[in-house]
Design a protein that fits this description.
274 residues; mainly alpha; Four Helix Bundle (Hemerythrin (Met), subunit A); 2 domains; 9 helices; flat
Length: 274
Amino acid sequence: MISGIHTINILLPIFYFATLIVYLYDFLKGEIKLANVKRVFLFITLFLHLIYIVLRTVAFDHPPITNVFEIFTILAITIAFSYFLVELVSDIRGTGPFIIILPFLFQLISSLFIQDLTEVKDVLRSNLLGIHVISALLGYSGFTISAVYGFLYLILYKDIKLNKFGLIFNRLPNLEVLERLSLYSAVIGFITLTIAIIIGVIWLPIAFPKFSYLDPKLIGTLLVWLLYAIGITSKILGKWRGKKLVTLSIAGFAVAIISTILSNFLAQSFHSFY
């Protein structure tokens, strides 16, 4: 089993790179026949990655969440899976290369530096913790994709204002669609982060009886959750749309990044136990 894990670990960046190339070629050439081919590439890569995650969990008796390079491989699959869902729901093509490059980079770094750890703290062997972390990463992956669509919206918006009608204008969806894609991604992220929060509330008192609700990570996560809750609610009620909405999405992503850096590197948090 270990040799199989190592083999897949080598193959995964190659598969993600091949998927990225197919999406990039489709973006540059705009050939309709590649629409299904690229989706098949992504599905195969996701399926192989899922097998890898399951094998690592079984072989080392813990979910792959014990260090930053294991987290990176989870980030890779959650971003790729979130985008796969968005693509299935929207059936929009042309934005793939801007998203797929992220899981490729995360998996490349993970494959280069990941280690086979059999001795870890007992708390890290909890399957409930694994579900909590993966749900949270799915949430942040959704927010990441939402922010990417937000940036693409602003780039296209600027090009239209400047009367620049080049490759970006020809290949990207229109502003309305980019706004909708950003919203879809944010909703996926919001739902999965909500699940992570619920699981955390259930599991946290059991694993850390002396925890504090003033923990920096908890406060940061709640702030991010509230920002996206406000944005999604405002969109549903018809109060916010267009540039204001995607700007909020980007702002929420920025807060998520800053919160993660502060809670993991600058502040004391029980979330740093790995």
